[in-house]
Specification:
The protein contains 13 helices and 14 strands. The protein is an alpha/beta fold. The protein folds into two domains: 89 residues, no CATH class; 279 residues, TIM Barrel, CATH 3.20.20.70. Catalyzes the conversion of dethiobiotin (DTB) to biotin by the insertion of a sulfur atom into dethiobiotin via a radical-based mechanism.
Length: 375
């Protein structure tokens, strides 16, 4: 969208509607602000009043559509980052980032055919299937992560869904990590309502289940699990009162509109996810997406900024792919509203920058780890 066209659309936003069932005062007004009279230029000869456009009469999120999201995504880069940073400051400490650690508690042999995944049994990637880890090892690793500054411990298993015989072990892992004073997160595949309730009862704080991409592009990436299946699991997680961690992957050959539609879907859930991981595809030899073209770094930053604007109270996590990002790209992402990362040398089976490199980057940027009480 041309700059002037985007500016005109945003300037006229208050005279239009989000959709057929929503009033004008809901348009881009979901978020309260304490900065009175703050305005910003969004294009030539146009101004965007943050107070006017980011407040809500009833405090509920708007029903976003692609037109609005695309207009914000297409703003001049500096204006988009200013808007995202303004919203970020209204909801979070601008110089603190939440640190999580991720462990693969059961690796490889997954029956799903996700085209990006090294752990799928459908592809020859060199990843060997392993059994579920024992509880003591997981708790020992969590203690090391806590001592290294992580406040949340995430545990992932390469399953379509957990089997009943594994639930007792998984529950013991949750209880053991919680006893260390850490938040817990798991990603175990699809859950039914009973499984979700059992995890909640064990003390699980977050459940991760990504939608991966837009509903339109989803079938190009996965055939063994539907988009609706993923939404159903998210519904079960919400129904039992757990927090949701849900995001997606960019750089899988999708269009710009697919990335935007993915965020529209997330923002339009009954409650937006508390944690939104944005992954940059790590091409894995042997998978169908091994030769996918890399996403432009500026486009990646735009997606992070759009996620911050559309889901202002969610933690936006820079997840997989940071090893391929320059320090400058990561710095722009933090300015655009990213405020969570995975620390450690590995993410499941992929490389990660490691604590030393992250600590050095944080020192250069003046960023400090987010404390548990503020999350």
């Amino acid at each position: 969208m041309e700059r002037r066209a985007a500016a005109r659309l945003l300037a006229s936003a208050l005279q239009s509607q989000v959709g057929p069932s929503l009033p004008v005062d809901r348009l881009l007004k979901a978020y309260r602000t304490s900065n009175k009279g703050l305005t910003m230029t969004v294009g030539m000869n146009s101004e965007f009043d943050v107070n006017q456009t980011m407040q809500s009469v009833d405090g509920t999120p708007p029903r976003w559509n692609r037109k609005e999201a695309e207009a914000i995504y297409g703003m001049p880069f500096n204006d988009l980052l200013f808007l995202a940073q303004t919203i970020h400051r209204q909801n979070f400490d601008r110089n603190r980032v939440q640190l999580s650690r991720l462990l693969s508690i059961k690796t490889g042999g997954c029956p799903e055919d996700c085209g990006y995944c090294s752990q799928s049994a459908h592809y020859e990637t060199g990843v060997k299937a392993s059994k579920l880890m024992n509880v003591k090892h997981v708790i020992d690793e969590a203690a090391k992560a806590r001592d290294g500054g992580a406040t949340r411990y995430c545990m992932g298993a390469a399953w379509r869904s957990p089997k009943e015989r594994d639930m007792d072990v998984v529950v013991a892992m949750i209880e053991g990590v919680k006893a260390l004073g850490m938040e817990t997160c798991m990603t175990l595949g699809m859950l039914d309502l009973e499984q979700a309730a059992r995890l909640k009862q064990a003390g699980l704080d977050y459940y991760n289940h990504n939608i991966d991409t837009s509903e339109r592009y989803y079938g190009e990436v996965i055939s063994t699990r539907t988009f609706a299946d993923r939404l159903e699991t998210l519904g079960h997680v919400r129904a039992v009162g757990m927090k949701v961690c849900c995001g997606g992957i960019v750089g899988m050959g999708e269009e710009k509109t697919d990335r935007i539609d993915m965020l529209v879907t997330l923002a339009n859930l009954p409650e937006p996810p508390e944690s939104v991981p944005i992954n940059m595809l790590i091409p894995i030899e042997g998978t169908p997406l091994a030769a996918a073209d890399a996403i432009d770094p500026i486009d990646f930053v735009r997606i992070v900024a759009l996620a911050r604007v559309m889901m202002p109270k969610s933690c936006v996590r820079l997840s997989a792919g940071r090893t391929a990002m320059s320090d400058e790209t990561q710095a722009l992402c933090f300015f655009a509203g990213a405020n969570s990362i995975f620390v450690g040398d590995t993410l499941l089976t992929a490389d990660n920058p490691g604590e030393d490199k992250d600590s050095l980057l944080f020192q250069r940027l003046g960023i400090e780890p987010m404390e548990l009480a503020t999350q």
